[in-house]
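Deliverable D4.2, example record:
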Amino acid sequence: MPGMSSFDQSTWRLILSPPADGATNMAIDEAMLEAVSEGSMPSTLRLYAWEPACLSLGYAQASSEVDAERLTGHGWSIVRRPTGGRAILHIDELTYAIAAPTSDPRVEGGVLASYRRLSAGLLAGLRQLGLAPEVRDAEPVGDDERADPVCFEVPSAYEITVDGLKLVGSAQLRRQGGVLQHGSLPLIGDIGRICTVLDFPDEATRRLRIERLRSRAATAEGLLGRPVAWAEAAQAIQAGFSEALGLRFDQRDLSRDEARRADQLRQDRYAHPDWTRRS
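Output generated by the structure prediction step:
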């Protein structure tokens, strides 16, 4: 039957988190990965938002690509992700995170194989919103794009697009028998806002990069012609993963141990300037 999953039905934990600052969000994702990897928690889908708005850098991205004065002027924070990739401005969006052991058939194999499997859940969720998404193989990337600081401007393998515009940016980390994949679904607002807090040689270049980004990426609102609330998007993504991956969800919170570990990771890593400002 069309739309039915080929996986045996499984129950995953679902966490619907209240909005949190960037350091807290990244610490929770990593604590979740550790708990799932060691087998103390089941595979988990977490849906969350950011408050205040936050610029996240990829694991190896140079912090010099950020205009710190402009970032402060906007009242936005900054964090470095445990996953790779380039900068993302987390504002007016839904973020998803999946943590699963590598033994889970939905994430087994290599990064690209598991990414394609998990993308099926995202595609089904976007269809729930009324969109017509597709997974498109990336085109060859030139040297100028490899050096680009903006995630949503650079083609990635099997990116999710609608009408040729990139809509979902995701990244994956594999560590000690576990997989963490998290990604960003911009809901409303100007997709070009990120360029206002990155470092460019002059304002003319900044304006050009804003326009280029607007021509390559989009928000759900821009594609649907109506605002999309976080709760609507969360319900759609949850339904999409359930349909495409054969999942039932048990809505729960972080365990006490995960919450304690997240607090430790936040203090020692994600809120620490040595972690964020390195490279």
